[in-house]
Specification:
Helix content: 25-40%
Structural class: alpha/beta
CATH class of the largest domain: Alpha Beta
Radius of gyration: 23 Å
Distance between the termini: 7 Å
Shape: globular
Number of strands: 19
Strand content: 15-25%
Largest sheet: 8 strands, mixed
Length: about 500
């Protein structure tokens, strides 16, 4: 068959969800995205599990799930308990844009989360995993910063309640500058394929979902202004990309969805209570019980909430280390690892919060015993009567065979409205009254977004649900790349062969 040559623009809105975009579109805050929806296709886009930025975007790029990639979170186990290393990249697997590059298509990748760029036919300006990562070509950052008249934005700093307004303003400005950079690169290099990621959307949702989840008229003005800036940014990049000429398609996608977080499940606290995570000294896991109760009680009063927000800011700033040691010391799994009795511990959760690992340092945990232990763990979790816990073995949810570094079990709690955590900050495994001043008010969901518009996309197409893994194969199929592996949903968008 003869394919009509198309250029593809993919705009990534990290954590984008129709639960937020639909009301904002209806209110008139997102006219460009609304025009794409009205003139094209839309569908929920199913993420991978865990629905986290790194495994999700890497699965999008490669068309391979976390089990095939061996990537399940931001970090992977280190060489000893309580230690981990940052995931650097999806390589040696190949991204679908690498294949486009090999056949002579010019590609551009902006703000994708890898530690350093690599050579291809086009350009790569990485994001997220390094403040000033190596680009390809090497002088690309200087080119971009000259074009936008300032420093190319990195990741947002940690949120501080005392600097709320400035932080949202910084997020908004980062979106503006990133759009300028993507538009300048599109105009100068005229890529056949361009991916540009806006990470700020996810950061805003994590911290401010309680405000964003209100009726639109009640959302604070600066948060609505942020989303209007995102809409204008998408339009600016789209305009610059289409100026390159030829048939073109624009996809707006997210790596996962977002929603309100109701509770926290402290997995290691639960394992300690079940005597599966054992400390050298009895009672070690119950340190700071009174303090944790006071912290939770404090947020029930306005004065207490204000005090704890300020205290959280001070801890993040690294000031008053004695106070930090009292309030937060010994709470993280890394800090507690040296106090764990690794010869008697059966299981622990680290470094993937949704994962439970069997302890390789326990001499009694033989390969023959592992299956029985996993059955027992699963039974205890699924019959936990304070929350609904779904339990999966890796081979049940992944099609890949690269499971050697996977957790032994993965859990999903209360349909992802309860967030698994690895620390031991609080005295109970389940914290229903979540302390927002430390963790924010939003967390991830499985369904992200896909909006498609342009040449060959049927206006009004509404597939029931698409899969993040299939976006790459769809683009390859629509761009005429022969023998593309994976499932293409191009026909569901109305794109002819």
């Amino acid at each position: 068959m003869v394919h009509t040559p198309r250029r593809y623009l993919v705009l990534g809105l990290d954590g984008g969800t129709f639960d937020l975009l639909d009301p904002l579109m209806e209110a008139g805050d997102l006219p460009f995205l609304r025009s794409l929806v009205r003139g094209g296709a839309r569908a929920p886009l199913r993420s991978v599990y865990p629905a986290k930025t790194i495994p999700a975007w890497y699965s999008f790029a490669t068309g391979k799930d976390p089990g095939e990639l061996g990537v399940f979170g931001f970090t992977e186990p280190g060489d000893r308990p309580g230690r981990s290393t940052l995931v650097q990249s999806f390589r040696p697997q190949e991204a679908f844009w690498d294949r486009l590059s090999r056949i002579g298509k010019k590609v551009g990748v902006l703000n994708f989360p890898i530690a350093r760029a690599y050579p291809l036919h086009g350009f790569v300006l990485p994001g997220m995993l390094s403040e000033r990562p190596v680009t390809y070509p090497v002088g690309l950052r200087e080119e971009v910063e000259a074009a936008i008249g300032g420093r190319y934005p990195g990741e947002l700093p940690a949120f501080r309640a005392s600097e709320r307004d400035a932080w949202i303003a910084q997020a908004t400005e980062a979106v503006v500058q990133r759009a300028k950079a993507a538009a300048a690169l599109a105009e100068r290099h005229r890529p056949d394929f361009l991916f540009a990621l806006f990470r700020e959307t996810d950061r805003i949702e994590h911290q401010h979902w309680a405000e964003l989840g209100q009726p639109v008229r009640s959302i604070p003005a600066d948060l609505r202004a942020f989303w209007r800036a995102v809409d204008r940014a998408c339009q600016q990049v789209d305009t610059a990309f289409r100026a390159g000429g030829g048939a073109a398609v624009t996809l707006v996608i997210s790596d996962h969805g977002h929603g309100a977080v109701r509770s926290d499940f402290l997995t290691n606290r639960w394992l300690a209570r079940e005597k599966l995570l054992v400390f050298h000294h009895p009672g070690e896991a119950d340190r700071r019980r009174l303090l944790s109760r006071l912290k939770l009680a404090s947020q029930r009063l306005p004065m207490g909430r204000r005090l704890m927000r300020r205290m959280a800011d001070l801890l993040r700033e690294g000031r008053f280390p004695e106070l930090a040691a009292l309030l937060g010391g010994g709470a993280s799994f890394e800090e507690m690892a040296s106090r764990v009795d690794w010869r008697r511990t059966v299981a622990y959760s680290y470094p993937v919060p949704e994962g439970i690992y069997l302890n390789p340092f326990n001499p009694e945990l033989t390969p023959e015993r592992r299956a029985a232990v996993l059955r027992d763990l699963r039974r205890r979790l699924e019959t936990y009567d304070e929350a609904r816990i779904e339990v999966f073995q890796p081979e049940e949810i992944y099609r890949g065979r690269n499971l050697g570094r996977a957790p032994a079990l993965l859990i999903r709690v209360d349909g992802m409205t309860t967030e698994p955590r690895m620390d031991l900050s609080y005295h109970e495994p389940l914290i229903r009254d979540r302390p927002e001043f430390f963790y924010g008010s939003g967390c991830h969901r499985m369904d992200g977004i896909l909006i498609a518009a342009g040449d060959g996309v049927r206006p009004g197409a509404r597939p029931a649900r698409l899969n993040l893994l299939d976006v790459g194969p769809t683009i390859l199929d629509a761009m005429g790349v022969p023998g593309a592996a994976g499932h293409s949903f191009a026909s569901e968008l109305g794109a002819p062969a």
